[in-house]
Write a structure and sequence with these properties.
The structure holds 2 protein chains of 2 kinds. By secondary structure, chain A is of the alpha/beta class. Chain A folds into 4 domains: 2-57, no CATH class; 61-219 and 300-343, NAD(P)-binding Rossmann-like Domain (Rossmann fold); 226-294, Arc Repressor Mutant, subunit A; 358-463, Ubiquitin-like 2 activating enzyme e1b. Chain:  B, domain 3 (Structural Genomics Hypothetical 15.5 Kd Protein In mrcA-pckA Intergenic Region, Chain A, Roll). Chain A has 17 helices and 13 strands. In chain A, strands 3-2-1-4-5-6-7-8 form an 8-stranded mixed beta sheet, with helices on both faces. In chain A, strand 2, helix 6 and strand 3 form a beta-alpha-beta unit. In chain A, helix 10 packs across helix 11, helix 10 (236-252) crosses helix 12 (286-294) and helix 11 (262-279) packs across helix 12 (286-294). Chain A starts with a helix and ends with a helix. Residues 1-5, 39-48 and 456-465 of chain A have low confidence and may be disordered. Chain B is an alpha/beta fold. Helix content of chain B is 52%, strand content 10%. Chain B contains 23 helices and 10 strands. Chain B has helices at 3-7, 9-25, 35-47, 62-65, 80-91, 104-110, 128-141, 185-192, 201-204, 209-222, 232-243, 252-259, 262-265, 272-279, 291-304, 324-355, 365-373, 386-391, 395-403, 405-427, 438-456, 465-474, 480-499; strands at 27-31, 51-55, 96-100, 120-124, 144-151, 154-160, 163-166, 379-382, 508-512, 519-521. Chain B has an 8-stranded mixed beta sheet with strand order 3-2-1-4-5-6-9-10, with helices on both faces. In chain B, helix 10 packs across helix 12 (252-259), helix 15 packs across helix 16 and helix 19 (395-403) crosses helix 20. The longest helix of chain B has 32 residues, at 324-355. The model of chain B has no long low-confidence stretch (mean pLDDT 95). The chains are: A alpha/beta, B alpha/beta. Chains A and B meet through helix 1, helix 2, helix 5, helix 12 and helix 13 of A and helix 1, helix 2, helix 3, helix 4 and helix 16 of B. Chain A: One of its GO terms (biological process) is protein neddylation. Chain A: Keywords: ATP-binding, Ligase, Nucleotide-binding, Ubl conjugation pathway. Chain A: One of its GO terms (cellular component) is cytoplasm. Chain A: Pathway: Protein modification; protein neddylation.
């Protein structure tokens, strides 16, 4: 058989999926030998390649987080034919990571996760280029995120997910009839785990619900009332939180508590033990103290592997169309038997983040300062200290001081002029919003329409604010 | 904390020191170290299993570089088992890692006694014939077995153990054992010392909800011929009764009492599941009884004697609005009752052990204590031998699943995963394994699958053509992401089996990577 004689390709197994036509595949799937060329001989970019292959060749994927999920994602994507990966993480490696973050060794402790993770995967899988970014996600320019075709999220915080979701949805543009413009859609896959449980989801902004549309999936964190801590402690956690939240400030005044400082943790533990003895409460241990103070989420290798694999598989499907796409939320629970379930959540049409945007009608004379003041009053926004961006141009920035000063003259100019005297366009505003009685960073999209500019009267009714 | 303890901190929070010790004592054998096996083992090595032994007779090929993280270009042409073993060892030097360069299918035939040295065998990518043989060997030798297979965008995980008993099953949601509607004398007298009509508002809003509900349940049953609220109207009426005792709107303890009212409505006595375990034929103690079944026998005696229909008390209470003093006192009352129940069970366990000719202290105190604490959460899992399932599966289940939109994909893959093994027995290759002759393979696979269905007794059942096409398209490929997913599940099951915590899957888990409508099939 000729097939047996042919030299083997590294993509032997992946080829079956990418080279062969199938019936249960995505609408954009064009299997062919060009895809094989893509995988085995990346350096030869021939003009004979189809658009499909060129799309794959220039494809860049960003992995956000190089922790339990991120390490797995990098390995999974590298072994799924992806060649250009970036990874961003602000953390350094800790000993407690080693039971699951398999790219790290004991001697790596203290080094940046992103750098070591990228290095280890490149050592093992030849041909893959991984660019590490040892940085906070908020410290990157928005344009940085626009360089990627797809973003894979391996995060453990709701705040970070919200941020990336806001950024990715910020690139989304809509046509006149509120149809998302395809080339502006930046899909995300998102995973999360806790113990034996986890979820994987696909977010195609403008098409499937974004993180914000279904924010209710993440219940608010339970906090103990301060009076319980101060007056009627009943269990070990109450004693620990008393030491951490009340006693620390009483004794140390302005010195802030650092959970990564072992001496601080030991102090809180000792105080918690004293308080527990005073009230006859059992159960304060050093391990529990760390758990309560740092809000430690238990994590194991297997669950991270399962969830990341689901995310990587969906990433491969989104870019190649080689099979159907997850619609749109997978839950996994392996504690009691094994349960996996797919739920198709629906978009929130009025979503501030992925929706067409909040329509704001303005007179052409409104100044930027007046506009910023209006954002604070607007019932759907309640956004204070707003920075304003129009496309790639910053119109105003609250910080850092140098840039604030640079943009300050704009405040007295009319927004209409600043936006190039177009009758309507999108602006992004970033500031502090009041949500659930808590101040949170918020990035929101606004559709600004200028009254009195040509042809606007008809537009108003069409949009139906 | 010492370094190993710190390293395992995030998992110790899940399965504790006992679970970790069980893992560190376990010796795991892996058959075939393709990506599926390597990934399964990776998760166990990171978690700190005692030892691993990799059995694989193949050499690393170029194609393996594209799907297996445990090989690299320098290992091409060398033993795959050796390469995987070396890379896995890098992840955790506390694990004893070794490899045997031999074909697992051969080993199963030539050296069946080889397997008896292990705690558990993970058998990956075996065809049906080898699965059946290995299953017999492991049953005989009392070695736990987990089968795993990745095949294109499909795959399965199947646990095979004669019997797996669990004391610490760690359910997600479980009703607290508070005995609100069936208080024992000490709880009753404590409740009587507290006056619900206390005039001091601060005292009123710090009465624990347990006290409120025990009083209200008592008041209710007195006026209802000893019956608890059962209808919807009665339950609402009961909650309104609790609400009527509030003297201000900010009383969190009363709000908690209303929310927890359902705990009053729960039936008294042990659940049907524990009833079933008590009635199991194994609960008649004999010299062959395992510790678990000896303790079940003691539990059974307890329930019909001292327990008065109830299991031993768990002894812990949830946090609730209360003064510190009330709460601590309440906690002590629950703990004291749990301790008293434990002493009774311990005595009964000793007597049973004596009766069956064993040392009366051969089951340790901490184990009996854990048994008492978890007596309402016991689990017993028994698995059919794969041979039984293969020759005589539940036909009604197969037909039901094939007709159900959510299950048809998974059941279709179950049939096709078996059909490809028949195919390869006939044609000496997997369908679609090579690029030519796809149409012929599709029609042959269809014929094979239909004859398999007929052999199983599912005459007239059909599989969607699209699914058969996909199966041929997969061509026995082992994709890294599918391997990582399925291998991940396998390692999670291994952890549950080895630590004897949580509940392993019962049935065959079929992975459907097309739309993720994967299912656990009970055949």
């Amino acid at each position: 058989m000729a097939d047996l004689e042919a030299p083997q390709s590294k993509s032997r197994d992946l080829d079956k999926l990418l080279l062969r036509a199938g019936n249960l595949v995505g609408p954009d799937f064009y299997p062919g030998t060009e895809v094989k060329a893509l995988i085995s001989q990346l350096s030869i970019v021939s003009s004979s390649f189809s658009d499909f292959v060129i799309r794959l060749l220039s494809l860049r994927v960003l992995v956000v987080g190089a922790g339990g999920l991120g390490c797995e994602l990098l390995k999974d994507l590298a072994l799924s034919g992806f060649r250009n990966l970036d990874v961003i993480d602000m953390d350094r490696i800790e000993v407690t990571n080693l039971n699951r973050q398999f790219l790290f060794r004991l001697e790596d402790v203290g080094k940046p996760k992103a750098e070591i993770a990228a290095k280890r995967v490149m050592e093992r899988v030849s041909g893959v280029e991984i660019v590490p970014h040892f940085s906070r996600i908020e410290d990157k320019e928005l344009e940085f995120y626009n360089n990627f075709n797809i973003i894979a999220l391996g995060l453990d915080s709701i705040e970070a997910r919200r941020y990336i979701n806001g950024v990715a949805c910020g690139f989304l543009e809509y046509d006149e009839d509120d149809t998302p413009r395809r080339e502006t859609i930046k899909p995300m896959v998102d995973g999360g785990t806790e113990g034996f449980k986890g979820h994987a989801r696909v977010i195609v902004p403008g098409v499937t619900p974004c993180f914000e549309c279904t924010i209710w999936l993440f219940p608010p964190q339970v906090k103990f009332p301060l009076c319980t801590l101060a007056e009627t402690p009943r269990n070990a956690a109450h004693c620990i939180e008393y030491a951490h939240l009340i006693k620390w400030h009483e004794v140390h005044g302005g010195k802030s508590f650092d959970p990564d400082e072992p001496e601080h943790m030991k102090w809180v533990y000792d105080e918690a033990v004293k308080r527990a003895e005073l009230f006859g409460i059992p159960g304060v241990t050093y391990s529990l103290t760390q758990g309560v103070v740092k809000n430690i989420i238990p994590a194991i290798a297997s669950t991270n592997a399962i969830i990341s694999a689901a995310c990587a598989l969906e990433t491969l499907k989104i870019v190649s169309g080689c099979s159907k796409t997850l619609a749109n939320y997978l839950t996994y629970n392996g504690g009691e038997g094994l349960h996996t379930k797919v739920t198709e959540f629906v978009r929130d049409k009025d979503c501030l983040v992925c929706g067409p945007g909040i329509l704001i009608e303005l007179d052409t004379s409104v100044t930027l300062q007046k506009f910023i003041d209006m954002l604070e009053e607007h019932p759907k926004l309640l956004l204070s200290k707003a920075s304003v961006k129009h496309g790639k141009d910053s119109l105003y920035m609250q910080a850092p001081p140098v840039l604030e000063e640079m943009h300050r003259p704009n405040l007295s100019k009319s927004l209409y002029d600043l936006m190039g005297r177009v009758q309507k366009d999108t602006v992004h505003v970033f500031g502090t919003a009041l949500k659930n009685e808590e101040k949170q960073s918020s990035l929101t999209k606004l559709r600004v329409v200028f009254k009195g500019a040509d042809g606007v009267a008809d537009m108003d009714t069409a949009i139906g604010a | 904390m010492s370094e190993p303890k710190t390293k395992y901190d995030r998992q110790l929070r899940i399965w504790g020191e006992l679970g970790q010790a069980a893992l560190e004592e376990a010796s795991i054998c892996l058959l075939n170290c393709g990506p599926t096996g390597s990934e399964a083992l990776k998760n166990l090595v990171l978690g700190g299993v005692g030892s691993i032994t990799i059995v694989d007779g193949s050499k690393v090929e170029i194609g393996d570089l594209g799907n297996n993280f445990m090989v690299d270009e320098t290992s091409v042409g060398q033993s795959k088992a050796k390469s995987a073993c070396a890379f896995l060892q890098e992840l955790n030097d506390a694990v004893k890692a070794k490899f045997i360069e031999e074909n697992p299918d051969t080993l199963i035939i030539t050296n069946p006694s080889f397997f008896s040295q292990f705690t558990l065998v993970i058998a990956t990518q075996l065809v049906e014939d080898s699965m059946v043989k290995l299953d017999r060997i492991c049953r005989e030798a009392n070695v736990k077995l987990v089968f795993v297979r990745s095949y294109g965008l499909a795959g399965f995980v199947r646990v095979s153990v004669k019997e797996h008993t669990i004391i610490d099953s760690k359910p997600d949601h479980f009703l607290d054992d508070l005995r609100l509607n069936n208080p024992w004398p000490e709880l009753k007298s404590f409740v009587e010392t507290i006056d619900l009509n206390v005039s001091d508002p601060a005292a009123h809003k710090h009465i624990p909800y347990v006290v409120i509900l025990v009083k209200m349940a008592d008041e209710w049953t007195r006026s209802h011929n000893g019956n608890l609220p059962s209808t919807r109207e009665e339950k609402k009426e009961f909650k309104d009764l609790v609400k009527s005792k509030m003297i201000s709107m900010d009383e969190d303890n009363y709000k908690e009492a209303i929310e927890a009212a359902f705990k009053v409505f729960a039936p008294r006595g042990i659940s049907s599941e524990i009833q079933q375990i008590s009635n199991d034929s194994c609960s008649e103690p004999s010299s062959n009884s395992s510790d678990f079944w000896v303790m079940v026998a003691a539990l059974k005696e307890f329930v019909s004697n001292e327990g008065d229909g109830e299991a031993p008390l768990e002894g812990s209470i949830p946090d609730m609005t209360s003064t510190t003093e009330h709460y601590i006192n309440l906690q002590k009352i629950y703990q004291a009752k749990a301790e008293a129940d434990f002493l009774v069970i311990e005595e009964r366990v000793k007597n049973i052990l004596k009766k069956i000719g064993r040392d009366s202290s051969s089951i340790s105190k901490p184990i009996i204590k854990s048994f008492c604490k978890n007596a309402r959460k016991l689990k017993v899992c028994r698995y059919r031998m794969v041979e039984d399932e293969f020759t005589n599966p539940s036909v009604t289940e197969i037909q039901k699943c094939l007709a159900d939109e959510d299950y048809s994909g998974a059941m279709g893959f179950y049939i096709l995963l078996r059909a490809v093994d028949r195919f390869t027995a006939n044609y000496n290759k997997f369908p679609g394994q090579f690029d030519g002759g796809m149409d012929e393979d599709i029609s042959r696979l269809k014929t094979t699958a239909l004859s398999l269905l007929t052999d199983l007794g599912c005459n007239g059942s059909v599989l969607p053509d699209d699914l058969i096409n996909e199966m041929c398209r997969f061509g026995a490929s082992e994709l890294h992401v599918v391997a990582a997913f399925i291998g991940g599940i396998a390692s999670q099951e291994v952890i549950k089996l080895v630590t004897k915590q949580f509940v392993p899957m019962l049935g065959t888990y079929i992975f459907n990577g097309i739309d993720h409508k994967s299912q656990l099939l009970a055949l």
